[in-house]
């Protein structure tokens, strides 16, 4: 009866959603919820008081809680990549973010207006380890390119501000559609990546393949092997990714992921020579599509290195000045940690960054060596002539040697 009343005259009642402060869940009719669930044993006056408190809380959140200041987020989340991920998450949940970073020529400028505001620049990353053969002019313009930051001494992966826009473009054009995650062939491909190619975090690669296959085969629940004969659709998908403003390294990932999938199919049906030949021809097509993408990345790499050549890079002494300037503050934090006093999360983050700076700027270790160091390797350190020697056996650097460094007693502490 109530539902019919709401739809009287063809209009459905627009109820204002309110949260119950007791169970912290959204409710369309908060008074009815309190009477039936959270406060069914309370008096009418008590329920009315709680309803009034909930409405006051909702009004306060609408006025203040939905608006976020990016400058305050910077003071809470020190890591830039985590901060940008938090901003994207908040925007997806319909929060408002003021003073967000702006974008100019592929470089993100984190502007913080006001007295003493600082501008922090971050360079997007570039995928590496791919074939750089150039057979034709790059189809990407300068504003689609990324800067190669992997050569920087203190390089850390940064999040691109255009990522959210590109994802939105893909959703609007249907490029984000994919097969069900429980598809038997995709499940088997994921096991192949984990067990044979030793890629434990491979869900993104499986999703990329699933999206490309869904574009080529827009209907049906099972993957049809006839996609190996649809080279035109594969080329159209790559062009659609470019039209969605995805950067060349991201598009290169899609192509490489698809190559791995076809290689998996060929290995899976190695006894079928006809099918194996079709897989080999499709891989050749993907290699052809990959060449202009690789050339676009190569062009950006040369441009970035040329700009660095023209600029005035910082000397080793300039970089190591950070260690001496911040030393007193880090010793204070260290003393607080040793004595069990309270240390804020932001100070802990700065302290961790300072420890990383000791190894990178003071002992000239590559960031990948720090990422590869394990707790057991630190516990297995040795003491030689008053120095604490540590070796890192597995690290993602171009060097085949183990990473070693000798710390002073103070640095080790």
Overview of this protein structure:
With 413 residues, the chain is mainly alpha-helical. The protein has 4 domains: 17-65; 67-122, no CATH class; 175-310; 316-412, no CATH class. The protein has helices at 2-6, 30-38, 44-65, 70-76, 80-92, 163-172, 184-195, 203-216, 231-243, 248-268, 273-310, 316-325, 327-338, 345-362, 367-372, 375-379, 409-412; strands at 18-19, 26-27, 67-69, 96-98, 102-104, 107-110, 120-122, 382-384, 387-392, 403-407. The strands form 4 sheets. It has a 3-stranded antiparallel β-sheet, with no helix packed on it. Strands 8-9-10 form a 3-stranded antiparallel β-sheet. A hairpin with a 2-residue loop joins strand 8 and strand 9 (387-392). Helix 9 runs parallel beside helix 11 (273-310) and helix 10 (248-268) packs antiparallel against helix 11. Residues 115-154 are annotated as: Disordered.
Offer a concise description of the structure:
The chain is mainly alpha-helical. The protein contains 17 helices and ten strands. The relative contact order is 0.07.
